[in-house]
Amino acid sequence: MSEGLERPTIALHGIASVAGRYVIGDQAMHPGINLFACRLRMIGSDNLRVTAPVIPQMGEIVSASFTSFGTLTGTVTRQYDDGFEMGFVQSDAERDALNARITSFSEKLWTTTSDRRSAERVMPSNPRTVIARPDNWSQPCLIVDYSISGAAVSAAFQPAVGEIVTVGRVTGEVVRLFDFGFGVRFFEPQSADHLESLLEAPDEWRDVMRRTFRAAQ
After folding, report:
1. pLDDT tens digit string along 144-170?
2. Pair (16, 104) in one structural domain
3. Which residues of 171-185 are buried (b: 16+ CB within 10 A; e: fewer)?
4. N or C terminus of the chain with fewer C-beta within 10 Å?
5. Do 176 and 142 reside in the same domain of the chain?
6. Residue 154: which of 36, 61, 55, 6 has the closest Cα?
7. β-strands 150-155, 170-177: how paired?
8. Domain count within the chain
């Protein structure tokens, strides 16, 4: 930021309904390699935090895009076991514009309501889970949204249509590829009351991921 008058710093925490996508590095976008989906957890004047399937290296360049906030570019300043934080590279004018978008979005949160149960497709409260193949290969992934019949998933690979995968503890078939991931159709329709818990990663897998993350710090 250039020198001048001090500008206000604002932040919005506890966001659970904003999905976006991010690109790691400054190379061309390639799904499953450097382009992934993410879920916003905090956004402020100078930084944001997301839940993500792939965690970039400290200091790595990232561009994150959200419908409500536009495309924000910066570098990774902190890593978490389920995502990362990035600080923005922006001008004074870009910072002011972002502050206006954050303020507008915050005001809308207080004036709109939604019934999560009535939606055909649902955003899980804990979107980061595990995806596995029949040969016991597995890795972290992010559930963009789901219904009783399938889920949209983002991960560090791009499977073939027709491939069999297990998301959390629900098995299905890859039926569609997106620019940020792929669609999985479950072999059997699931119970709406229990599906979100079935899509969560098993506790033992989460424990291993946490230990791995801490060991790398």
Report:
1. 999 999 999 999 988 999 999 999 999
2. yes
3. ebbbeeebebbbbbe
4. C
5. yes
6. 36
7. unpaired
8. 2
